[in-house]
Specification:
- This protein has a 6-stranded parallel β-sheet, with helices on both faces. The protein has a 4-stranded parallel β-sheet with strand order 6-5-7-8, with helices on both faces.
- The protein is globular, with a radius of gyration of 18 Å.
- By secondary structure, it is of the alpha/beta class.
- The protein starts with a helix and ends with a helix.
- About 50% of the residues lie in helices and about 15% in strands.
- It has 2 domains: about 160 residues, Rossmann fold (3-Layer(aba) Sandwich); about 110 residues, Rossmann fold (3-Layer(aba) Sandwich).
- Helix 12 links the parallel strand 9 and strand 10.
- The structure holds D-glutamic acid (DGL).
């Protein structure tokens, strides 16, 4: 039992996303839990998840989770993707014998801070039409008017490394302006890719508006879960941070290094067939 505990403590936390957006969550986890070993998977070959059938997204999530458990013996899993969380969190929790932490658009804090009483939620189409999101809305819409905006094309642009072209600025303007016109003063970034565009969003919404993302809150949730299960890593050591992708490793490595403004080494994931056999 003691040796199992020691093994669990040192095991890495697995974090995955459809692509590079989850790095915004990875970064918060790394900052809050600097002693934890982390392994990140960017499922870039399958991005975006936001317009795919739920069944396909669930299957991908299962494959990635089983890969992380079997190959990296992770002690906890962070689903660093709102879309994947909405589709697959329950299945993952039912199947995996480890804690699974997911994302949730930050509507609760948004309705608490809004001055105008109008909150805007930017997210993928799949997140916004999920049952999980409907339940979240039901729980909070008596406290503020909540307007949702699916943001087609943003994830694809970010995955191509586009953070500041005229095209993405125009796309964002098309999504944000109608919300401003409705009196929105609080913007919920309900997709882990969107914090990568925070500067552009800030330019559009002005200095006074609130922009709320969920990465830091999720990192706190991870910390709480590890402590509660007595599997937090308390060893003073140099942690390992490993990155894998289903996309072209060199290409994704270049983008990831640009987005996170530091050199990152991406390794290729096993093939889809190998991954599927893990979850079979
Ligand atoms: N980062 C994912 C999310 O939080 C993006 C989903 C997608 O790939 O469309 O929803």
């Amino acid at each position: 039992m003691v040796s199992l505990h020691v093994m669990n403590m040192n095991a890495p936390i697995g974090i995955f996303d459809s692509g590079l957006g989850g790095l915004t969550v990875f970064e918060e986890v790394r900052k809050l839990l600097p002693q934890e070993n982390l392994v990140y998977v960017a499922d870039s070959a399958f991005a975006p998840y936001g317009n795919k059938d739920d069944a396909i997204v669930v299957q991908r999530c299962e494959s990635l989770a089983h890969y992380l458990i079997q190959t990296h013996t992770i002690k906890a899993l962070v689903v660093a993707c709102n879309t994947a969380t909405a589709a697959a969190i329950q299945t993952l929790r039912d199947q995996l014998g480890i804690p699974v932490i997911g994302m949730e658009p930050a509507i609760k804090p948004a309705v608490a801070v809004t001055q105008s009483g109008v909150v805007g939620v930017l997210a993928t189409e799949n997140t916004l039409k999920s049952d999980k999101f409907s339940n979240l809305l039901d729980a909070h819409q008596h406290r503020a008017r909540i307007i949702t905006q699916p943001c087609f094309g943003l994830v694809e642009a970010i995955e191509q490394g586009d953070l500041d072209s005229k095209r993405i600025k125009q796309l964002l303007q098309n999504y944000v302006q109608p919300l401003l016109d409705e009196g929105v003063d609080t913007f919920v970034l309900g997709c882990t890719h969107y914090p990568l565009l925070e500067q552009l969003i800030r330019e559009l919404v002005g200095a006074q508006a609130y922009i709320i993302s969920t990465g830091a809150a999720v990192a706190k949730q991870v910390q709480h879960t590890l402590k509660q299960d007595n599997i937090d890593n308390q060893e003073a050591h140099q942690p390992t941070h490993d990155f894998y992708t289903s996309g072209d490793a060199k290409h994704v490595e270049t983008l990831a290094s640009k987005l996170s403004q530091q050199p990152m080494k991406m390794q290729p994931l096993p093939s889809l067939a190998e991954l599927s056999s893990l979850s079979a």
